[in-house]
């Protein structure tokens, strides 16, 4: 079962999402919170796999909640999906930059939301690379272009090639076909890239690539 936690200041909205997710055979809602401060305490208690996090809340908003969760003090972290009311949301871009795995619009269908939770739980993103690029173009907090750090230059030529393909949004299967290797080889290379660059997941590869202008 995928353990899901809901964080939104609207109780009625949380109730509707809970009903939709509890109807899924592979999910259970293990906690609810009405603001970020309450959420951080509850996350440490119930240990959810995936957190659905509203970006705008009283007391502590979604961006500050993500910053707090991913401040390096926790050894075990949930995947975070940001909930927002419109697509090109600067706050959502900032949350993704700090560790969230993507965003979903609050008017998404229950089926889409469930699919997004499954994808993020499996280590994927709920945003295509071109959507992330468009989102970051509107992010006033985006970091200026910087030279690639030494860790990137230490990637092998093959790893750099795989890095660029991941940053463009290709799946492991698509990369394997293009590079004439097996999917398991690609998976191993992606894991090596994440470890060498100290990145959490594929979303952070896209962020890294955009920050350092490593993709067109």
TrEMBL record:
Positions of the Response regulatory domain: 3-121
Domain of life: Bacteria
Keyword Transcription regulation: yes
Modification type 4-aspartylphosphate: residues: 54
Short name of any one Pfam family annotated for the protein: GerE
UniProt entry tagged with the keyword Phosphoprotein: yes
InterPro entries associated with the record: CheY-like_superfamily, NreC/VraR/RcsB-like_REC, Sig_transdc_resp-reg_C-effctor, Sig_transdc_resp-reg_receiver, Tscrpt_reg_LuxR_C, WalR-like
Coiled coil: none
SMART domains: HTH_LUXR (SM00421), REC (SM00448)
Gene3D superfamilies noted in UniProt: 3.40.50.2300
Biological process terms in GO annotation: phosphorelay signal transduction system; regulation of DNA-templated transcription
GO molecular function (one): DNA binding
Domain HTH luxR-type: 148-213
SUPFAM superfamilies found in the cross-reference section: C-terminal effector domain of the bipartite response regulators, CheY-like
Keyword terms of this UniProt record: DNA-binding, Phosphoprotein, Transcription, Transcription regulation
CDD domains tied to this protein: LuxR_C_like, REC_NarL-like
Protein name (database record): Response regulator transcription factor
Phylogenetic lineage: Bacteria, Bacillati, Actinomycetota, Actinomycetes, Micrococcales
